[in-house]
Amino acid sequence: MRIALDAMGGDDAPGPIVAGAVKAVAADPELHVLLVGDRAQIEPCFPPGTFPNDRLEIFHCTQVITMEETPVLALRKKPDNSISRCWQLLAERKVEAIVSAGNTGAMVAGGLRLRRFLKNVRRPGIAAVMPSLRGPCVLLDVGANVNPKPTHLFQYGIMGSIFARHILQRDRPTIGLMNIGSEEQKGHDLAKETHALFNSSHLREQFIGNVEGRDINRGACDVVVTDGFVGNVVLKVSEGVFDFAMKMAAKDVLGALDAERPRAQQALQALVERYDYSSQGGAPLLGIDGICIICHGSSGDQAIKNALGMAARYTKAKLNELIVQELELEASTQTEDEDAV
Amino acid sequence: MRIALDAMGGDDAPGPIVAGAVKAVAADPELHVLLVGDRAQIEPCFPPGTFPNDRLEIFHCTQVITMEETPVLALRKKPDNSISRCWQLLAERKVEAIVSAGNTGAMVAGGLRLRRFLKNVRRPGIAAVMPSLRGPCVLLDVGANVNPKPTHLFQYGIMGSIFARHILQRDRPTIGLMNIGSEEQKGHDLAKETHALFNSSHLREQFIGNVEGRDINRGACDVVVTDGFVGNVVLKVSEGVFDFAMKMAAKDVLGALDAERPRAQQALQALVERYDYSSQGGAPLLGIDGICIICHGSSGDQAIKNALGMAARYTKAKLNELIVQELELEASTQTEDEDAV
Hints:
2 copies of one chain form a homodimer.
Chain A: E1 2-6, H1 15-27, E2 32-37, H2 39-42, E3 56-60, H3 71-77, H4 82-91, E4 97-100, H5 104-114, E5 125-130, E6 137-140, H6 150-166, E7 175-178, H7 189-199, E8 207-211, H8 215-218, E9 223-225, H9 228-255, H10 261-274, E10 283-286, E11 291-294, H11 301-316, H12 319-340
Parallel strand pairs in A: 1-2, 1-4, 2-3, 4-11, 6-9, 7-8, 7-9
Antiparallel strand pairs in A: 5-6, 5-10, 10-11
Helix pairs in contact in A: 1-11, 3-5, 4-5, 6-7, 6-12, 9-10
């Protein structure tokens, strides 16, 4: 299993990125990581005795796209940037997966530019795993596609459902459409047309209709489908509110205690870490021919290690083969329906 | 101060609605409430000895729009419904404010239908007060306008800023545009065009540019502007995540304690109540000539009492006069700019 890791992407890169790669190869004997970036900056980050290593390789390149740069412009102006080199390695099948904590927009734009989508996929989407009272659920798209068509959202339902079944282990995943009310005629045209599309598809049994913002954490369904603008806002609002709630709990609840305060503090800290959005490992860009994991800019070594593990797991689960099969089925159903009309 | 209260709107109406009105008039000697709805259902809800009362009146009507009905259709089919009657009382200047915990869509549609907007207002927007680490901020629109134009969002910035100054007591409110990244060129066309509009206006000094989902609770700015779809999702996601976080804290933190558990439980319960979205009192529909407060469907008597108090406060603060002045100023600036070109 070979993975290209963008060593230059992330708020504190390359330090924690390199450290994460070292941890990941130590934990998984089948893993081979290509650190993509400036050799002169990467090499000094290896802890003593960890490099050279026959499963850690540097793929040298000279340029970096920063977090603030406009993705499309930056990709054009900097041909030797680490993100483009990762995509190139994937396109040439020199690696099976790529991982980056760098500029999300550039990562997505790099993939769109290459157009190495799975067969029948119209537009890839980023899937984020969200916590709920009934276990994790998957929300997509969280930022790849801010102007989607109803068919894009419908395909996110298909891909999300496969993800929920094979990664989150849900037998028969339910799918909800993010909207501002439960009634069918609610929301903007995109929501209404997507709703109709699900209801007339082979997914209609799994489709529970519209869900609202508060339904995600209640665990109302296993897959929540939305456009990349709303999904990105939802992801970041969730992060912000959880952080706010934990800070308030620390102030008010811990502040009310005496002897048992350390115990409460420990429990609260464990809770914060469990739902820390930046340590989750990353979010897959589904629909790409190959595995692509996008990590939080603030990812530390543990998050990078988790993301590499995630990439390896998705490859083993043959997620992409399953997506292709399901989309083939959908395409053939559509043709039959059209014939019947 | 006369307020029309939709006695039939709300999950458990009219019980808690009537109880809220009774509490509100007891607390404010200047308040006069017209309970709008079915007299036969309203009268039995008065606690013994509270009715008749010269500051509590029933305005009888026969129909009710339920939570599940399609707003525009329901308004047409049920001319004698309590929401339309409230709007009518406002239009005839028989009341200064209206309050409802009923079907939000019908409440907004009723107002749009009447078109009793403040001078120069293009589209009203619902403002919600959100908690942050640096005190409350205002988010708008949270559901009145799901397909806004950039000028609508710009006006939400103006109205939100006046709200923040005169209701939240912020000296010089800052305004942020909800987006999926901080860079100017981020997001969809609506976001980009609105960004440009703020930057070329007299609000440019107050405009801090794009804000992301996690910035709301951090208190990055006093006013967050967005479309009604995103705003509604943000409001409900916030409610859902806060609820989730409190449930997790109750389980994990309280579960770790012994003797001091009751004390921690009390502190946590106080925290939950402080940020209970359904007890906040309601959200004003800004831009209407008159005060219109929209409450959570699950509002109890305390929430209704708070909403009535809120309506009275906004009327006294002359919020609408200030909005009209500011929009006049903006309109004259635009004309000057155009003349200068």
